[in-house]
Amino acid sequence: MRLFYLLIGLTILFYQTTVYSYPKISTIKSNPDYLLITNNSLPIIDIAININAGSRHDGNLPGLTNLTFESISKLRYEDEKVLDLFEGMGAEFNYNVGKDFSSINMRFINNKGNVAYITKLLNFIMTERKVEENDLNFLKEKTKNRIYARSLSPGSLASMKLNEKFFAGTGYSHPVLGYEKVVDSITIDNITEHLDKVFNKASIDINIVGNISENDSAHMISKLLKNLPQGKKIEHIPTKIKFNGKLFLNKVSMDTKQTHILIFTPAVKRTDDNYHSFLVINYLFGGSGFGSKLFTEIRQKRGLAYSVYSYLRPYNDFGILAISMQTKNENAKKAIRIIKDEIYKLKENHYTLQEISKAKESILNNFAIRHDTNKKMLGLLSQINYLNMDLNYFEKYENSIKNVSNQSISKILENKLFIEKSIITAVGNF
To answer: What pLDDT, in 10s, does the model give residues 221-252?
Structure first.
C-alpha cells in the first residue's frame, strides 16, 4: 500500500509543471541585431555570428553559400599552430550553413588574452577575401565526396528528393551542398562576389551567451566588425510554395533492406500565432515518442517499424509538419497507407482534454531541459534574433503553451493544416 501511494505521488510530481527562472535576453547597447544572455555559472563565452544568407540565396549556383563558408573557414583553423592554440585555450570553432541563414560559431574560455585573439581571428575570417585556386580545388573535392556520400544514404536521399518536390521553383528546393556539376563550375570570382554581398555589418546578427557583461560584449563586437563594410542588408523576399493540390507519393528506387519514408505537410511559420497550438498537436500526433498516436498505430498495434515520429520544421515564411519512419520493404505500401489514414484522422481532433493537458505539461517540463546549456541557448538566441521575436521569449512561450485549448487545436486543424497538399517520399526497394 505504501508503494502504491509512493507511485501516485511520483506520478503527480512528474506531471506537475515546474516554475523556472528564465534567463534574461537583452540587446547590446540597444542594438536589436546584437543579443546577449549573461550566464556566469562557467567562465565560458559562446558566440554566433549569423549572416542573413543561406542556401536559398544561392541563385543559379546551388552550393555556392556552403562552398563560400568552406573557403573562409579552411583558414586558418586547419593550420597546426592555430589548432594547438585553440586546444590550449579550450576553444571550439565551427560554421553552419542553413536554408535561411548561416553562422560562424566560437566557444572559448573568457580571459583577456583569449578574447583578444578570438576577436582578431574572427575579424580576419570575415574581412579576408583572398581565395587560392589550390584551396578551392581541394574544397570542391571535399564537397563532392560529401555529395557522393549523400547519394549512398537512403535517409539523406529521401530528404533531398522530398525537398526538391515540395519546394520546387524556390531557393529551398536544392540541398545545402548543391550538386556535383554545379560545385565544379563555381569560380573564385563567384565566391568573392558572394563574400562581398553577404559579409557586411548590415547583414550580420551577433548572439552571445556566457560569462561576459554588456559593456565587454559591445567592445568585443566593435573589434569583430572592424573594417567590415556597412553594406546593404540582404532583402527578404517572401517565399511562396506552389503545391500539387493532392497527397502525392514520390517513389525513389534504391537497393535497401528497409524503405525510408519521409512526409512533409504544410504547417505554420515560427512566428505564427498558432505555432504553439501546433506544438501540442505534433506532441500528441508523433512528437512524444512512445505515447504518440503514430507510435501506437505503427509500432504497437502493427509492428511495422521500430521508430516513427513527427516534428515541426519552421522556416521564415512557412512551416512543415514532417513524419519520418523506416520499415521493411515488403511492409512499405501498408505503412504508407496507414500513415496516410492517420494524417487524415488528425484533422478530426480526437484528443481529449486530459491528453491535451498532459501534453502541455510535458512540453513545459521539457522546455528548460532543451535550453540548459550555453550552446542550446545560443541556438535559440540565433532564431530569436533572425526572426525578430520578442525578448521576453521564454515567458511568452510558457504562456502561449498554457493558453492552448481544445478549441484552438480544432480551429488550427481545420484552417491551418493542408493535408491534401502533403508529399510523401519513399526510398527503397518495394
So the answer is: 999 999 999 998 888 888 888 776 678 888 99
Decide yes or no: CATH 3.30.830.10 for domain 26-224: yes
Output DSSP code: residue 61.
S
Residue listed under C-alpha cell 573564385 = 188
| Fold (topology level) of 248-428 | Cytochrome Bc1 Complex; Chain A, domain 1 (3.30.830)
- The β-bridge partners of 92 are 107
What's the Cα-to-Cα distance from 353 to each of 211, 294, 297, 344, rounded to whole Å? 43, 19, 21, 21
Closest by alpha carbon to 263, among 276, 250, 282? 250
Backbone dihedral region for residue 71 (phi beyond 0: left; psi -120 to 50: alpha; all else: beta): alpha
62 φ/ψ sector (left φ>0, alpha ψ -120 to 50, else beta): beta
pLDDT of residue 244: 67
Query: What percent of the chain is modeled with pLDDT above 70?
Result: 92
Q: Would the pLDDT of 85 be above 80? A: no
Q: Greatest CA separation found in the chain?
A: 77
- Domains 26-224 and 248-428 belong to one CATH topology: yes
> How far is Cα 412 from Cα 234, in angstroms, rounded to an integer?
33
Q: pLDDT exceeding 90 applies to what percent of the chain?
A: 70
Cα(406)–Cα(399) distance, rounded to whole angstroms?
16
Rounded CA gap, 336 and 313, in Å?
Answer: 21
Q: Residue 7's pLDDT is what?
A: 46
Contact of 321 with 265, CB cutoff 8 Å: yes
Mean of the per-residue pLDDT values for the chain?
89
CA angle 241, 245, 251 (to 5 degrees): 90
pTM beyond 0.85: the answer is: yes
pLDDT at 291: 85
Report domain extents, the chain: 26-224, 248-428
Helix axes 80-88, 64-77, angle to 10 degrees: 80
pLDDT band at 15 (very low <50, low <70, confident <90, very high): very low
* CA–CA dist 413, 402 (Å, integer): 18
Q: What is the pLDDT at residue 74?
A: 65
Across 326-340, average pLDDT: 94
Quote the CA–CA distance of 331 and 298 in Å, as a whole number. 11
In the block, which residue shows the cell 586547419?
Answer: 78
Number of Cβ within 10 Å of residue 333's Cβ equals 14
Tell me whether strands 204-210 and 92-97 are parallel, antiparallel or unpaired.
unpaired
